[in-house]
Design a protein that fits this description.
The chain is an all-alpha fold. Helices cover 72% and strands 0% of the residues. It has helices at residues 14-19, 39-44, 52-67, 75-92, 99-110, 113-124, 127-130, 133-143, 148-161, 166-178, 182-196, 201-213, 217-237, 243-263, 271-307, 313-325, 329-342, 347-367. The two termini are 49 Å apart.
Length: 369
């Protein structure tokens, strides 16, 4: 019988990678037994017609999308898809050499590092595993915080198999930092950006931090500005979203640290750095204010959820205001329109709709084919 990997309770770990925080996976929820399915129904399912090699490919594809998933992507459908294909492989070929790789990937996404390492080490001992650069790269990722030398050995094996992969060079750069090789770390970080086209925020931010620590403040400032621009672009692409604000806040902090170090130099006389530092502090304060408004929204939203469908007008009014203040314009318009349906004389709702409706109409027109 196949052992089901409980991917459905996974927690996204992308933010810990960017902000340097540790995110502990939650305890798996109790799962009700699955209803029995007769053999005839199983045989007619779409998965039953898939060959083992195809199921492996589809499982890997599902795991790739889970690793790269955005906050807005539906988690449960993706995890269920990965689970189904892993089960197909186990059911049809319990000795398939790719099973440890699939489990290792799944455990890594779940934050179960020890289990992930056990499975991946088992995989790279196979003929298939010895030629899979992603397995070595992932082992490097799992080892890098505590065992940088072991991580480096795995990243180097991955690099032999795929010399032009930015994630591998980035891992080697992080290893160099852990091992005290600052010059090597900077060189590898530059190579990473060259291969990546400087499009990945964490690579650019990593180089900025290394250059700042090495005293190369001019170039550190340029890279920090590039990282901040990337973060702000992502924020502007998701108006009203919470996560991009956190990323921008982190990048402003990096910029502030670099500029503060520059102005603290005894011989520093560049007035423009004082102006840049003041502007960065002001802009970060605005970002943090919006983050606090998201906290307000969460409180109001909890009240709305608890009182639905008979939410009091006073709570609905504050809900609309909170949505508007964080930039969720369409949702705010819906809330104010609902409020006017309950209280046609509500002046607050009418005033906010007058202010928001043009933006809402423009958004709707943009979405129309």
């Amino acid at each position: 019988m196949a052992i089901r990997v409980p991917l459905f309770w996974m927690m996204p770990l992308w933010m810990s990678a960017i902000l340097g925080q540790t995110v502990e996976p939650p305890e798996p929820p109790h799962r009700q037994p699955e209803p029995a399915v007769d053999a005839a129904t199983q045989e007619t399912s779409a998965e039953s017609a898939i060959g083992v090699d195809e199921a492996v490919r589809l499982a890997i594809d599902a795991l790739d999308r889970l690793e790269a998933r955005d906050e807005s992507d539906a988690l449960v459908p993706l995890t269920d898809e990965a689970n189904r294909y892993i089960e197909v492989v186990e059911t049809k070929d319990a000795a398939n050499p790719w099973i440890p790789y699939l489990y290792g990937r799944a455990y890594a996404i779940m934050g179960r590092r020890g289990d992930a390492v056990d499975q991946l080490v088992k995989f790279v001992e196979t003929r298939e595993g010895r030629n899979e650069w992603r397995a070595y790269r992932l082992l490097g990722d799992l080892f890098v915080d505590e065992f940088p030398r072991l991580a480096k050995a795995n990243y180097q094996k991955a690099k032999v198999l795929n010399p032009a992969e930015p994630t591998v060079l980035f891992g080697l750069s992080v290893c160099a930092v852990r091992l005290g090789d600052r010059e090597g770390a900077i060189s590898l970080a530059r190579e990473t950006l060259e291969l990546d086209g400087a499009q990945t925020l964490r690579y650019v931010s990593h180089l900025a931090a290394l250059l700042s620590a090495d005293g190369q403040s001019n170039e550190a400032f340029k890279e920090a500005q590039r990282a901040l621009d990337l973060a702000r672009t992502s924020m502007q692409a998701e108006p009203g979203a919470y996560r991009p604000l956190l990323v921008v806040d982190a990048q402003y902090q990096q910029m502030i640290d670099i500029l503060q170090a520059r102005v603290n130099e005894p011989a520093h006389t560049d007035i423009s750095d004082y102006l840049r530092l003041a502007a960065s502090l002001r802009q970060r304060a605005q970002i943090r204010q919006t983050l606090m408004l998201h906290d307000v929204l969460r409180v109001i939203e909890a009240g709305v959820d608890k009182t639905a469908p008979d939410t009091p007008p006073a709570l609905l009014e504050q809900y609309g205001i909170a949505l508007a203040e964080v930039g969720r314009t369409d949702a705010a318009v819906d809330a104010f329109e609902k409020l006017l349906g309950l209280d046609p004389s509500n002046k607050v709702a009418a005033e906010w709709l007058t202010r928001l409706q043009p933006d809402s109409l423009k958004s709707q027109q943009t979405k129309e084919p």
